Amino acid sequence: MPRRRLLRIPTAVVGSLALAAVTLTGTAGAATDTRAATGVTAAATIPSHLSGTLADGATWIADVPANWNGTLLLYSHGYGPLVAQNAPSDEARTALLAAGYALAGSSFDPQGSWWALESAARDQFATLDAFSSAVRRPSRTLSVGLSMGGLVNAQIARDGAGRVDGALGLCSLVAGGVDLDDYQYDAEYTIASLLLPGQDVKLTGFADEADAGATAQRLTDAVIAAQATPQGRARIALAAAYLNQTDWAPGQSQPAPHDYEGQEAQQYAWLAQGVLGFIEHGRWSIERSAGGNTSWNAGLDYAALLRDSKHAAQVRALYRKAGLDLRADLDTLTRGATLQADPEARRRLEASSTAGQGLAVPLLNLHTIADELVPVEQEAKFAERIRAAGDERLLRQAYVARQGHCNFTTAEIVAGVRAIDKRVTTGHWGDVAEPAALQRSALSLNLGGAAFVRYRPDRLVVGRQSSPHGPKTPPGPAGPR
Asked: How far is CA 240 from CA 31, 45, 53, 226, in A?
């Protein structure tokens, strides 16, 4: 996709989405005036809290501190209930308001799927317009996004020239929905094929939330049963490799590089504790949004796919110890790989849920190095696409040595905001995104600990041809599940 064809949402279109239904809470008894042009009633003094409704039914909220510094943080929330949020946590909200930032964010379209990429960026731009009408246009707007909202954030950083000035991503799903569905499918398919052989396990096309939950339970039960034998543990490790699953679990020490059994035990801990339930619910939501199955594996070589994984040596070692023939299992997976995507559903997901085609403003992404839901390797895929688009000068990525999805301290979040704010102010990165500088900044806040480290993520194991413009959709009609 040439840069000139990137999506640019016209200001007039976005502005038309802001409705008159706005509630303002400010100084008690403050005088109000009615703005006839917008239908918005605003307090004469800057209100402390605002809420409203957009044209598609999405709600938005905002908080403005008395000492507002003129900068608005436009927050995109993660996967989950479509409720308006304007900060990653209550603690972060308190700290950011105390630092003088105003906060705003929307629910995204409540009539849609939790995978709200069809409406999210549009609703965030509309929220910015609603805030500007109700209060005033911010002197600076920084976009912030968490998890799925980090994908929205990357799209805003791509499309928001003239509307936002910089962006901060937190544990961002920046590889996009297409890659996510593909590598998660490979892991599900491996569990079903090798741990539930001969059984009919529904992996796509869920009728409803309960249908997705039933599959998640079957896969989780199979993993729990398999952990009891060396053969089962080897096959769990193979599925985990395809899932890009971290081998550092909560409450445990990080396993040594060649402690392959310890690595598998911690991968198992993640899988047994609900990761598969989250994956299957997410697949149901994505398919609702896209209108069909978006994953394919027809003709995929699972031996070649394993060679791409940083966990390949672990898998080979555990297969040898279990006395299993790895080549036979890989051949079984390759022979059984017949799933075709619904072409229109995949094209729709590519259009709504891909990022990395370019950046219009500086973007700083923070990621924990052991993220069980959005693997840190997604950052490597995103950086590759940004380099191909020629915008690497606008991107910086920083890492926190901790387990868990979005498991940041308040100090780390505020340090990230301060870093992107300084990048916008000065016009250059300098050392603000370096781990040592971020660590010093975070610790100076007295808001908790920090664990910024120098880190380079491995490549994301996906196995499908991809480009800066999104993964290639294979030819052919939709096939069996």
From this structure: 60, 55, 42, 13
User: Which CATH code for domain 3-176+354-453?
Assistant: 3.40.50.1820
Three-state SS string over the chain comes to CCHHHCCCCCHHHHHCCEEEEEEEECCCCCCEEEECCCCEEEECCCCCEEEEEECCCCEEEEECCCCCCCEEEEEECCCCCCCCCCCCCHHHHHHHHHCCCEEEEECCCCCCCCCCCCCHHHHHHHHHHHHHHHCCCCCEEEEEEECHHHHHHHHHHHHCECCECEEEEECCCCCCHHHHHHHHHHHHHHHHHHHCCCCCCCCCCCCCHHHHHHHHHHHHHHHHHHCCCHHHHHHHHHHHHHCCCCCCCCCCCCCCCCCHHHHHHHHHHHHHHHHHHHHHHHHHHHHHHHCCCCCCCCCCCHHHHHHCCCCHHHHHHHHHHHCCCHHHHHHHHHHCCCCCCCHHHHHHHHHHCCCCCCCCCCEEEEEEEECCCCCCHHHHHHHHHHHHHCCHHHEEEEEEEEECCCCCCHHHHHHHHHHHHHHHHHCCCCCCCCHHHHHHHHHCCCCCCCCEECCCCCCCCCCCCCCCCCCCCCCCCCCCC
Query: pLDDT tens-digit profile of 182-206?
Result: 999 999 999 999 999 999 999 999 9
- What residue ranges of the chain are covered by domains with CATH 3.40.50.1820? 3-176+354-453
Q: What is the pLDDT of residue 468?
A: 37
> Is the predicted pLDDT of residue 6 greater than 80, yes or no?
no
What amino acid is encoded at 84 in this protein? A
User: What is the reported pTM?
Assistant: 0.89
Q: What is the pLDDT of residues 292-317, one digit of tens each?
A: 999 999 999 999 999 999 999 999 99
